[in-house]
Structures are given as C-alpha cells and as structure tokens.
Amino acid sequence: MEVAQAPSPSPTDNQPVDHALVTAYFVAFLGYLIVTLLAGLSYSLQFLQKYPFPGVELLSPGRVRMVHTMSVAYGMLASGLFGIVSYIVPKLTGFPVLSRKLAWWLYGIYNAAVLATVAMILGGHAQGLEWAETPKILDPFIALTVVGIVVNNITPIWRARAEPYYVSLWYILAALIWTPLVYVFGNFLPEYVFGGTAGAAISSMYIHDLVGLFVTPLGIASVYYLLPVAMRVPLYSHALSIIGFWGLAFFYPLNSAHHYLYSPIPMWAQYASIVASIGVHVVVYTVVFNIFATLASDWKQLVTNFPVRWIFMGTLAYLITCIQCAVQVTLAAQEIIHFTDWVVGHAHFVLFGTFTFWITAWVYWLLPRIWGTPIYSLSLGRWHFWLATLGICIMQIDLLAAGVMQGYLWKSLAPFIDSVRASMPFWWTRTFSGILILVGESCFILNIYLTWQASRERRAAAANLQPSGATS
Ligand code: HEM
User: Fold this and answer.
1) Atom 43 in ligand 1: which residue has the minimum CA distance?
2) Ligand 1 environment, Cβ below 6 A
C-alpha cells in the first residue's frame, strides 16, 4: 500500500534555495513536455499517412520533427535539470547563487530563446546541423545564457571549497564546465570553421556530448542527491560514485565518432570511439550498482515511496539502454541497424525512460514540499507511472524490432518501398505507445495542477484562521 509523501520542509529549506525559481523551471519542464509529446505524436502520424496538418506550411512535418527534438533537449530536459541544479547547489554548498536577480533574468532569456527557436523553426529558419537546429541568430543568446547559468552556480560551489564536495557537486561542476563548451563546439565550429568530414566529426562529438556531458552528469547528480534523501538511508558507496565520475570524465568525450560508424571519418577515430564506448560501461555499472545497492537497504520503498519508484524505473532503463549501446556500437550490429528505427527506439528509451523519469521523481518529491501539500492523488500518480512505463517499453521493443527488420530488408537489396510497407504495423504500434505516454503524462500534469490548487486553498484557509489584524 502506498503512502503519500508527507511534506516535511525544514526551517533551513527557505534559504539559500530560491524555491520560486526551482518551481518556475519545473513548470517550464511540464510545458515543454506537452509540446514534445504533441509534436512527436503528430509527426508519428506522418509515417501512417495521416498527418493532421496536411498542406499547412508552418506545421509541415519536417519542421514539427525539429520542434519535437529541440523541445526535448533545450526545452524539457534542460529546464528540468536547471531546476534541479538550482536546488542542489545552494542546498549542498549552503550558499545562494551569485545573484538571484540574474538567475531570474537568465530563466527569462533562456525561455524566450527556446520559444523563439520553436517559432523560427516553424517559420522555416533552422540551422542545418543535426541536434543544433536552433537558428544561427539565436545561438549566441543560448550560449551566453548558459555561461550566465554556469557563473551563477559555480560561485557557491567555489565559496564552499573548504569542505569536501558531495558527489552530486562533482558531477554538476563538471557539467557546468562542459556544457558551454559543448554548445559552442557543436553550433559554431561545424558551421563556420570546419567543413566536410572534419565538421561531421565535430558534429558527432556535439550530438554525443549533449547527452553525455550535459544531460547524463546532471541526471546522475540528481539521483545521487535525491535517492538517499528520499529514502532516508545513506548512499551505498561514495568511493564507487567517485570512480564512476572519473570514468565518465575520461571515456565519454572519446565516444562521439560511434554515431558515424562506416562513415568517411578516419577509421582509427571510429575504432577509438568503439573502445571508449566499452569503457563507458564502467561508469554505467558503478552508477547502477550504487543505486540498486542503496535501494537494497529497503526494497519496500519501491512500493511505499513514490519518487523512489520513478528513480528505480529510470535506472533500469539506463541499464538496459547502456547494455543495448554495447551491442549497437559493434561494427557487426551497425551493418544492420544504422539509419533504422532501432536508433530512434534507443533515443526514446534513454531520454524519456531514464532522464525524464528521474526528473519526474524530483517533481513528485519537491513540489509538494515547496507547496506544503501532499501530492493530490496517488491514484493519478499510479496511472501516470504505469502508462508512461508501459508506453515507453512498448515503444522501445517495437522500434528495436522495426530496426532489425528494416536493416535486414535493406541488406537484402529489396526495393526500399518494401521496407516502408513492412514497417507500417510497427509505426502504428509506435503511435499507440505514444498515446499511452500522452495520457499518462496528462495525468501527471493534472495531478501537479490539483496539488498546487490544494496548496492555495490550504494557504487561504490558514490565512482565514489567523486572528484579524495579525500579519504573517
Ligand atoms: C508521444 C510520444 C512520442 C512519439 C509518438 C514520438 C515520436 C517520434 C518520431 C516519429 C520521431 C522521428 C523518428 C524518425 O525521424 O524516424 C521522434 C524522434 C525523436 N524523439 Fe520522439 N516521440 C515521443 C516522445 C518523445 C519523448 C518524450 C522524447 C524524449 C524525452 C523523445 C525523443 C526523441 C528523440 C531524441 C528523437 C530523435 C531520434 C533520432 O533522430 O534518432 N520523443 N519521436
């Protein structure tokens, strides 16, 4: 039987964290989540020749696909992770960010730039680089805002340097240093400096490092913080967590060319990326082992503690995608799965199944605490969990199977259209799984909205109970 997470804000919770800012980032996360899902679902209908906006140039499928992926990376995941960083850094260091006012400006400028990206992509003004479709004119704004977020958050980490850092701060510090570099490398160098194969090599580094050096370290930092706090048990092993950190720092940046295996990028770089990708498994297994070993101190909490359940499922998805990665990084597997739906399945499972699930754990854990109200409905929460889990598992199995089938058909040199016809049942299943996810996430948003409403009513009732003339 589940129990609601009793909100227990301690007196120190008010300082030095800016709770309103964290809340604003989480609200942005929820907003972009809906954009992501609607764009993904609409685009999936194009594969079924049932696109809902035929002939509407502004909503043409190619543009909607870019809105989908940009909203995933720069809208949804970035907002969720920036929200978590805005909580963890002041909480662990004991110092506020350099300037709260600056933090709000950065929040506003960043969101304006992301919304302008969506509007301009729909207007037909994308940059022609994979995952870097943000229009060129907006790139400097995003880059400068990210630098601002870095400076604002590194200041408290620097001030707290006299004490040893908890592992979450190691990961956050590294991600804060890497992220502006990743953005500038990926958006400017292939566009203005390196063309051809060299540009592709840089692009592959950007594609990989956006996930590997931005999303992954912040995601891991978030779990290393939340899991022990939510479970009220110590982390299984700090030594292991630090080994994982250095493994990530060493191996991840060397992985990138594995996105372009069999391409004209020099073979030695491709082989090196394969070896480094195997090395990344050291990181993955230390993190997964540490999380599961921490969970093992009280498995019951998987049932009784709602945020912990999301962390568990996200970690399981992380393990599965990473084992999958070990398979798909081999040249033998690439021969079949390259350019197929296998890769799309992999992308969804890790970005939704792992990182979105981990951020979701945070939203369920933190917002009720900030608002001083338990989550409105555990039943809605359960629907959310099972629909999202079922949806993403069906999508992953479906797209992996589609990918293998497509790869073998292409290898047999059958006419391409045969593979399109054979893919139809898989694409219908993908859309069906997307609907499950959309319904599940709608339960989530409704639940959070009702929790907020309940907190307002509670506050209003408390204010009415105060003796007249008293001020709070
Ligand atoms: C309603 C649920 C969703 C549906 C139906 C859906 C559908 C799609 C479709 C049709 C594509 C294009 C595939 C192609 O061009 O062959 C795509 C790409 C992508 N989607 Fe989704 N999506 C959904 C949710 C999500 C979520 C929640 C995330 C991340 C958290 C996500 C991440 C991605 C990524 C990263 C790609 C690019 C994959 C690649 O280029 O390899 N999607 N999605």
Assistant:
1) 40
2) 36-37, 40-41, 43-44, 65, 68-69, 72, 343-344, 347-348, 351-352, 356, 430-431, 434, 437-438
